[in-house]
Amino acid sequence: MPIIRRWSIARELFVLQVLVVTLLVTAATVGTVALAAQDAQHAAVEEVTAVAETIARSPVVVSALRTDDPTTTLQPYAESVRVATGTDFIVVMAPDRTRYTHPNPALIHGPFVGSIDAALHGGTVVETSTGSLGPSVRTVVPVRDERGAITGLVSVGITTDEINRRLRNQLPAVLLATVLALALAGLGAWLLSNRLRRQTHGLGPAEMRRMYEYYDAVLHSVREGLLVVDRDGRITLINDEGRRLLGLPDDAPVAALTLPPEVAELLTAAEPAADVPVLAGDRVLVANQRVTRFDGRTLGTVLTLRDHTELRALAGELDSVRGLTEALRAQAHEAANRLHTVLTMVELGRADEAVRLATAELELAQQLTDQVVGAVAEPALAALLLGKSAQAAERGVELVVDPESRLDGARLPSRDLLTVVGNLVDNALEAVTGRPAPRRVTVLVTEGAAEVLVRVSDTGPGMTPEEAAAAFRRGWTTKHEGRGLGLALVRQVAERHNGTASATPASPDGGAVITVRLPVAGS
User: Domain Histidine kinase, which positions (predicted)?
Assistant: First the structure.
């Protein structure tokens, strides 16, 4: 029906509960009344049987049956007992059915209507029959003399109308219990309906189904990872993209998921966060977290994750290219100055000194190139070191490649080497920039039988033991901005290759030393 379709799920549940409870209580009431009627019938049978047996054993009845006119003695006696016991009739009769007593005196000496055969043989007759007073429940028992001979019969009965009257007297209590049960059940259904209405915001089944379908479709189709956490810190939802970005199995239940430490730390804080970089496996993710509220109540937090791994790699390469471009521009400007100097010296007739000046500059540049290329056979890493050397010169920093450096093969991915060396050199350059002379960064890259060793030292301010212990944590930086990712990425590469990354608070030159050991395949 259209009206029912517009009902909220709370109203539908309330109506359904009321109907079910009403049916159950009605059935219980009918059953109770039926049991009460049956109990009233049994009680009437037991009552008339007890009264009949008591009268049959009375000496008054036994002696009166031996007289010529038993009615004179038995009629008053029977009526007094009938009134006292609340029965409807007591009939004392001869074995031939002749009545000696009856509530209606006009029927005395008339024949008794009903079964007496079992009583004549010493038994008891119990039956529901229609007699002179209408339908009744009656019993007939024998009266025996001193010798045991049957000298008469006693019949005691209660009319059906009387039994029904007694039953009707019990109906108010039954009806009261029924009304109370219905009222309590209705109140419980109403309270439950109100609670359900608050929790479902008055939505109907069709609206909830449609909302769930849209909700599920949207959550699993968005290109961002999404995690929903309740007020107790339990994950209640994670979409497909979230599982992929965090490297979580698709078939694992939400309650059994183990999140990367940095993501778990962010969720545990349960505080708003905007564009916070976090590491998850080999991915760099940007996290945004918001506290969710409804009607002034805090429901939990929602965390969204975007994959910035490739973007950050490209940004790092772009920064390197930009830095190299700036260094080349500065070198071009410097070279132009030197060229003008050489030309001026030639014009002044000092050709020998001009040649020596130009040759010295070329030798310095070629010496650095030969040193780097001779020590590092990996072309990408050699190019990186030359570019960083140009950047260092632009900043007034001396970048030294340790003479012990040697890297002949490509036993590690170039990208991982560039990540480690590039981030370590960048951090060292930042540490010494603006410091008093000497400003030097020393790089050692050497390959052994079992591992590749990368060590970068500087002449900067160094680190305290506490800073050295926390250096590879996300957010640590020499600039103290809480956004550092360089050393965290280095740690990530080291962990991916089952290697180590450590920081020494002070080098022989006064600065810090960062050492990374990367086991190589086949070692």
Answer: 302-522
- 470-501: per-residue pLDDT in tens? 666 655 455 544 345 667 777 777 777 788 88
CATH number for the domain whose boundaries are 222-307: 3.30.450.20
Output the six-digit token pair for 441.
Answer: 């960064």
What's CA 152's distance to the chain center, in Å? 84
What is the pTM for the complete model shown?
A: 0.45
Q: Which amino acid is at 335?
A: A
- Strand order through the sheet with 398-401: 398-401, 440-447, 451-458, 513-519, 500-504
Contact 90, 67 (CB under 8 A): no
For 267-323, write each residue's pLDDT tens digit.
777 778 777 777 776 677 778 888 877 667 777 888 888 877 666 556 556 655 665
Q: Evaluate whether 424 touches 515 at the Cβ level (below 8 Å).
A: no
Which residue shows structure tokens 């070329």?
362
What Rg value do the Cα atoms of the chain yield, rounded? 54
Q: CA-CA distance, 164 to 498, in Å (whole number)? A: 93
Q: How far apart are the first and last CA of the chain?
A: 76
- Contacts within 8 Å (CB) and 24+ apart, 63-69: 64/100, 65/92, 65/94, 65/100, 65/143, 65/145, 65/151, 65/152, 66/145, 66/151
Q: Which amino acid belongs to residue 134?
A: G
* Domain range summary for the chain, segments of one domain joined by +: 11-166, 222-307, 312-519
Q: With beta carbons less than 8 A apart as the criterion, state whether 492 and 282 touch.
A: yes
Looking at the chain, the number of H-run helices and the number of E-run strands are: 15, 14
Identify any residues that bridge with 277 across adjacent strands, giving them in sequence order: 286
Contact indicator for 155, 173 with CB cutoff of 8 Å: no
Q: Decide if 440 contacts 432 (C-beta within 8 A).
A: yes
Helices (H), 57-105: 59-64, 70-85
Closest by CA position to 130, among listed 169, 167, 160, 99: 160
Level-2 CATH architecture, domain 312-519 = 2-Layer Sandwich (3.30)
Please indicate whether the domains covering 11-166 and 222-307 agree at the CATH topology level: yes
State in words which class domain 11-166 has. Answer: alpha beta
CA angle 308-251-221, nearest 5°?
Answer: 50
